[in-house]
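During the no-cost extension, the postdoctoral fellow (Dr. R.K.) reprocessed legacy sequence entries with the updated structure-token encoder. One reprocessed record is reproduced below for audit purposes.
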Amino acid sequence: MKMPGYITIADALAAGFTHHGKYFGVPLWVGNVDDESGGLLVATKWAPMEYVMTVLHHVEGTLRPLLFPNDPPSFQFWIGAPIETG
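Re-encoded structure tokens follow.
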């Protein structure tokens, strides 16, 4: 039985995601990893975690410019292993 709101591997691959990832511990699906234009695809693996990720975006968006004022705006995504279809 599939957990409600969970994006399966098959669904993630069909949507264009290619890798596992994390954002401050929140499990993600990540795509367009090698795209140099910066068009990274990111989605939480479980829909309710989108709320947690939104809060973390706001915290990082507020604190990062204060701690690193000379750095360009960015988000600290961790790109993990490619999705295995096995």
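The beta strands are 19-23, 26-31, 41-44, 78-82. The chain is about 30% helix and 25% strand. The remaining legacy entries will be reprocessed before the final report is submitted.
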